[in-house]
Amino acid sequence: MHNNVAPQLTRTRLSYVIFGLNIVTLLGATGGCGYSHEPLYPQDIRTVAVPILENRSFYRHVEGDVAEALVKEIELRTPYKVVPNGEADTQIRATITRVGQSRMSRSRDGGLPQEMELIIRASFQWQDLRSGKTLRQRSGMMATGRYVPTQPAAEPYQVAQHAAAQRLAQKIVAVMGANW
């Protein structure tokens, strides 16, 4: 009986080794769990123009807030330099399609809004000005920011607008880098 156990155990170990090698080979053939050595951003682009965004909402100055955040985010997270329109390889055109607010909570005393959320919805298109080709575009992007309008904080809605503008800029730059 002792002689039969050893060959069985060896066959089992061999099966595990072969299974493991197959998995390693498969992962290597498919790029290994989604990792790649390819650059995140297109390498033939050096510059981006970010003109003032179109604003279809009733909230004033939100387009400037988003444009400023977008310029900073591009300069910080990408290999690109932001330059004026006539000097750029590419251009990002974006539209603020809607801005709205919703009450997150209210105070027990009097029912005043205690925490509010501001939501910015936008669409954008990143275009290569040399070829006219659209590199990336998205519609219906959304970003939020929160603020406390009542005492003791008494924050203006611009606090939330600024936070939402930064989040929207981060999302746009993420789409610039992803080829999906």
Report a brief summary of the structure.
This protein has 180 residues and is of the alpha/beta class. The protein has three helices and six strands; from the N terminus they run αββαββββα.
What would you note in describing this structure?
- The chain has 180 residues and is α/β, with parallel strands linked by helices.
- It folds into 2 domains: 1-37; 39-177, ABC-type transport auxiliary lipoprotein component (Rossmann fold, 3-Layer(aba) Sandwich).
- Helix content is 36%, strand content 30%.
- The longest helix is centred in the first third of the chain and has 28 residues, at 2-29.
- The N and C termini lie far apart (59 Å).
Chain-wise SSE layout:
Layout: H1 2-29, E1 47-49, E2 54-55, H2 62-77, E3 81-82, E4 90-106, E5 113-128, E6 134-147, H3 157-177
Parallel strand pairs: 1-3, 1-4, 2-4
Antiparallel strand pairs: 4-5, 5-6
Helix pairs in contact: 2-3
Give me the strand/helix succession.
HEEHEEEEH
Please name the CATH architecture of the largest domain.
3-Layer(aba) Sandwich
CATH class assignment of the largest domain: Alpha Beta
In DSSP terms, counting alpha (H) and pi (I) runs of 4 or more, how many helices? 3
Number of strands: 6
Q: Do you know the CATH topology of the largest domain? A: Rossmann fold
Shape: flat
Could you estimate the helical fraction of the residues in percent? Answer: 25-40%
Biggest sheet statistics: 6 strands, mixed
Structural class by helix and strand composition: alpha/beta
Beta content: 25-35%
Q: Which spans of ≥5 residues are poorly predicted at pLDDT below 50?
A: none
